[in-house]
């Protein structure tokens, strides 16, 4: 099943069922009006939406209309939790080496997960608004899951059963604010402004065999100002699967339905796969030549992130954002 | 105006107006059913609730009933944001000195604020459930505010205008998990399980002159297993006011209505005022004698936190929780 949220002037938007090929859509009105409502009452509401989804895919839904991803908010425009992991050792390794540090050896036993802000999540075509390019504006392409309720102490395998939806995200980062926040130890706050999400949330079954072992085994394509900069396998080098990331959070507290848990920047050791964030590109430059030659993003830059399935069709729709200046009323 | 949320089997509970003396209450049905709904549409809904509040205080509300704080969820049982500051230099100073480190000198220019989990907030009388006392179970008594929408780049003074409600909180902390999370730099996740809140949220005008300069100038009383351990002024040594904490968050992103922002553990240099968390008590012991003699909390322990107004009456109602073991089905 594929779902999205249309802008309607409200804070939570309007829940849509979207056809598998992303061509058509149907309001979920009569079943649920908001995405969180579905997550709150998944077992009762999701079968009804599945029925509508099948009807829509068969071209038989009576009030279907053309799907316009430009009209989408984030699938969850605001969420009660957004916790983001760092599950790709290559990402940790590159960034550590570039600053002359050793990568932590214990990432499998002691996952890196930070609590992100979730009160304001961006739609796939929303401008990403910043006040200052001197902050080092960077993207981070990643996969994420939306959970149901997860009990305190749930283990990694059982945690996977809580996965309700898969998302594609762009975790905007302000790189020059990161060192200060890392040093304080209080985590990322100013360095992690609002995260953006692809238009469509999908149930794991939509991915078929590409969803296995708690990972999304599909490539993430990234284009920066129209130029391809990445074609990175989101599963191959994800050392910790989503169940392990959820279990890390659940060790001392339960998670409530609608919690979003991210993988961290997708990353591959093979440099020809490209980079899931500019910080990695710069890290490779620093390691190779002693200094970074690639700048972070400028106002007016565009970023596109997309995942194509084995059939070549877009799974989540594309994130396609413009970096905008607050000063320009952007 | 005073507001609370009654348990009704739903995730968000039922919004109540509570009389100033906390003796009686009235469902807000017909105006708003949930606290977040009020925050989403404050300007339209709050005057209607104020009218009901006045009627209730006059004893003229037709369907009033006795207020039972035991039936309360957190005023916001789940929130889109819970960001917690560390605004009391004495707290930072004591904890730094106890581990042989210097307190950071820049806390006024570079506030300590961490992003907390907000998908599961505890009611004032809910058990605080933990799996293991070896984690170092500690309380942290603090004040918090609930904001309306705050624009990106809002300054400290303007940010104060966004304060809609004041809360009293107990930010449960697992002390022995803190050093590892501080070292990772990703912030507090496992070390900060679900936070509890006093039954009643109050509008700032309820405090009269005690709400000034963006601070709550009232003492916080804490009793651990029935023994008073603190009578700490929540305003006197709060170096950063709530507007400054909100502005710190708003530097790189806007805040959306219903964001909760905390002061961090209330603290006073005068040791006779007691301690707002056990970690401070232990820090004083370590500084004075080289080792800590006070243990963290045990299963079955009780913690009570309350703020009395100048008139001696409870402002928010009391937090009164039991530390329970997950293993005991607690």
User: What is the CA-CA span between the terminal residues of chain A?
Assistant: 34 Å
Shape of chain A: globular
Question: How much helical structure, as a percent, in the residues of chain A?
Answer: 10-25%
Tell me the fraction of residues in β-strands of chain A, as a range: 25-35%
Strand order of the largest sheet of chain A: 6-5-18-9-10-12
**What value does the average pLDDT of chain A take?**
96
Q: pLDDT under 50 segments of chain A (min length 5)?
A: none
Oligomer: homodimer
Strand pairing plus helix content of chain A: what structural class?
A: alpha+beta
Give the C-alpha Rg of chain A. 19 Å
The chain pair forming the largest interface, with residue counts per chain, is: A-B, 53 and 53 residues
Contiguous helical run count of chain A: 7
- The total strand number of chain A stands at 20
| SSE pattern of chain A, N- to C-terminal | EEEHHEEHEEEEHEEHEEEEEEHEHEE
Largest sheet descriptor of chain A: 6 strands, mixed
Describe this structure in words.
In chain A, α3 (89-98) packs across α7 (278-289). Helix content of chain A is 20%, strand content 26%. The longest helix of chain A has 16 residues, at 42-57. In chain A, 54% of the residues are buried. Chain A is of the alpha+beta class and 330 residues long. In chain A, the strands form five sheets. A six-stranded mixed beta sheet of chain A has the order 6-5-18-9-10-12, with helices on one face. In chain A, strands 4-3-2-1-13 form a five-stranded antiparallel beta sheet. Chain A has a five-stranded mixed beta sheet with strand order 7-20-19-16-17, with no helix packed on it. At the A-B interface, β6 and α5 of A face β6 and α5 of B.
């Amino acid at each position: 099943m594929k779902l999205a949220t249309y802008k309607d002037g409200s804070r939570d938007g309007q829940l849509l069922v979207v056809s598998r090929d992303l061509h058509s859509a149907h309001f979920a009105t009569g079943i649920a009006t908001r995405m969180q409502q579905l997550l709150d009452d998944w077992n009762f509401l999701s079968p009804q939406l599945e029925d509508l989804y099948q009807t829509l895919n068969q071209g038989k839904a009576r009030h279907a209309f053309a799907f316009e991803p430009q009209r989408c908010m984030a699938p969850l425009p605001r969420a009660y939790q957004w916790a983001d992991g760092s599950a790709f050792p290559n990402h940790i390794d590159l960034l550590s080496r570039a600053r002359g540090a050793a990568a932590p050896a214990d990432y499998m036993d002691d996952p890196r997960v930070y609590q992100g802000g979730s009160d304001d999540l961006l739609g796939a075509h929303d401008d990403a608004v910043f006040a200052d390019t001197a902050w080092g504006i960077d993207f981070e392409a990643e996969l994420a899951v939306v959970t149901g309720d997860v009990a305190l102490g749930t283990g990694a395998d059982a945690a996977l059963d809580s996965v309700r939806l898969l998302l594609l995200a762009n975790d905007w980062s302000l790189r020059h604010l990161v060192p200060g926040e890392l040093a304080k130890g209080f985590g990322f706050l100013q360095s992690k402004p609002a995260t953006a999400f692809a238009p469509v949330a999908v149930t794991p079954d939509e991915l078929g065999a590409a969803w296995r072992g708690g990972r999304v085994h599909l490539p993430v394509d990234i284009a920066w100002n129209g130029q391809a900069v990445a074609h990175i396998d989101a599963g191959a080098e994800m050392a910790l699967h989503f169940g392990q990331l959820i279990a890390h959070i659940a060790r001392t507290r339960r998670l409530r339905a609608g919690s979003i848990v991210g993988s961290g920047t997708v990353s591959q050791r093979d440099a020809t796969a490209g980079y899931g964030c500019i910080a990695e590109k710069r890290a490779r430059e620093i390691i190779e030549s002693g200094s970074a030659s690639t700048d972070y993003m400028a106002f007016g830059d565009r970023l596109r992130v997309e995942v194509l399935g084995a059939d070549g069709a877009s799974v989540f729709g594309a994130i396609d954002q413009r970096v905008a200046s607050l000063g320009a009323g952007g």
